[in-house]
C-alpha cells in the first residue's frame, strides 16, 4: 500500500497535506476527524490520518480497501509527494500537465515552474524501453524544459542495465573498461530511483542517495550532474567511498566463505 500524504475534504474546502502540518496539527487531525470528512485521492474512499512505524504521517483507506490497482496508487502517491515538495521549494506545481513542442506532445506527471525554470518530473514504474525514455526525454530537452525521471526500484534496475549496455556499446567499443566497474547512466537521461516506503528515499547507481527535496532543488538549480556514468549532486566522494566500503565488505565475505 503506497502511503499518500494528501487527502481532500469531502465538503470541498480544500486538502489536508501531511508535509504542511506540524506533528501537533497532525495529532489534532487524528483526534478530531470524522469518518468521511476526508477522501483518498485514488478512489474517494474515506481517508484515515495515520502515523507509520517510522513516524511518517500518511492517509490510509478506511478498512484498507481500494478500487484502484496497487500500481496506480503508488504512482498517484508519488505524484502528490513530488508536487508537494516542488511547492515547498517555491515552484508553481501541478500534476498531469499537458504541453507540446516540435518533437511532440507530452503530459508531464508533475510540472514545476520557478523563476522562469520549467521542470517536468516523470514517474515510472511500468516497463518502458530505453528508446522510449529517450524519445520522451527529447521532447522536453528540445524545448528547454528540465526533466527528471523517478523510477521504482525494479524499473530502475532494468533501465540501468539497458543504459549500461548502451554505454558499453557506444563509448567503450563493447569492451569492459579496465577495472570492470563503470557507471551505467547516460548524460541525456536524468534519472534516480524513488522508494516511497518505509519513508520516501532517493537512490541511484554508484551508491547515490539524496532526500527528495535535495534532489529536486539540485535539478532546478543545475546541480544534478552525470559524471562518468553516475548521476550525483555534490556527493561523488561519499558515493565512491561507500562503493569502496561495499567492495571491501564483499571481498572480506568471499575470503571468509573460502576459509
Ligand atoms: Zn483508493
Task: Please tell me about this protein's structure.
This protein is an alpha+beta fold and 259 residues long. It folds into two domains: 6-68, no CATH class; 74-245, 3-Layer(aba) Sandwich (Trna Endonuclease, Chain: A, domain 1). It is built from six helices and 14 strands. The protein has helices spanning 23-32, 70-88, 130-142, 153-171, 212-220, 236-258; strands at 6-9, 15-17, 38-39, 47-51, 57-61, 92-101, 104-114, 117-124, 146-151, 191-195, 201-204, 208-210, 225-227, 230-232. Helix 2 (70-88) crosses helix 5 (212-220). Pfam families: CoiA_nuc. This is Competence protein CoiA nuclease-like domain-containing protein.
CATH fold node name of the largest domain: Trna Endonuclease, Chain: A, domain 1
Instruction: Output the helix-strand order.
Output: EEHEEEHEEEHEHEEEHEEH
Ligands and ions found: zinc ion
Neighbour order of strands in the largest sheet: 6-7-8-9-10-11-12
Shape: globular
Mind telling me the CATH class of the largest domain? Alpha Beta
What is the residue-averaged pLDDT? Answer: 92
The domain count comes to 2
Percent range for helical residues? Answer: 25-40%
Q: Which quaternary structure do these chains form?
A: single chain
C-alpha Rg, in Å? 20 Å
Q: What's the β-strand tally?
A: 14
Distance between the termini: 44 Å
Low-confidence stretches: none
Amino acid at each position: 500500500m503506497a502511503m499518500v500524504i494528501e487527502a481532500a475534504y469531502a465538503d470541498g474546502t480544500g486538502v489536508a497535506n501531511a508535509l504542511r502540518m506540524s506533528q501537533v496539527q497532525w495529532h489534532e487531525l487524528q483526534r478530531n476527524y470524522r469518518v468521511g470528512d476526508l477522501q483518498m485521492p485514488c478512489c474517494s474512499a474515506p481517508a484515515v490520518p495515520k502515523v507509520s512505524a517510522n513516524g511518517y504521517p500518511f492517509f490510509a483507506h478506511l478498512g484498507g480497501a481500494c478500487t484502484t490497482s496497487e500500481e496506480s496508487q503508488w504512482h498517484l502517491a508519488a505524484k502528490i509527494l513530488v508536487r508537494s515538495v516542488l511547492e515547498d521549494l517555491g515552484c508553481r506545481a501541478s500534476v498531469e500537465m499537458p504541453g507540446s513542442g516540435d518533437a511532440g506532445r507530452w503530459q508531464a506527471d508533475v510540472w514545476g515552474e520557478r523563476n522562469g525554470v520549467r521542470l517536468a518530473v516523470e514517474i515510472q514504474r511500468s516497463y518502458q524501453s530505453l528508446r522510449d525514455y529517450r524519445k520522451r526525454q527529447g521532447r522536453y530537452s528540445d524545448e528547454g524544459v528540465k526533466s527528471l525521471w523517478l523510477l521504482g526500484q525494479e524499473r530502475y534496475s532494468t533501465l540501468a542495465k539497458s543504459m549500461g549496455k548502451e554505454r558499453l556499446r557506444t563509448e567503450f567499443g563493447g569492451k569492459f573498461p579496465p577495472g570492470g566497474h563503470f557507471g551505467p547512466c547516460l548524460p541525456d537521461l536524468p534519472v534516480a530511483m524513488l522508494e516511497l516506503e518505509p519513508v520516501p528515499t532517493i537512490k541511484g547507481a554508484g551508491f547515490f542517495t539524496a532526500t527528495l527535496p535535495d534532489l529536486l532543488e539540485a535539478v532546478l538549480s543545475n546541480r544534478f550532474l552525470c559524471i562518468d556514468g553516475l548521476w550525483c549532486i555534490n556527493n561523488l566522494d561519499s558515493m565512491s567511498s561507500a562503493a569502496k566500503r561495499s567492495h571491501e565488505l564483499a571481498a572480506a565475505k568471499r575470503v571468509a566463505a573460502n576459509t
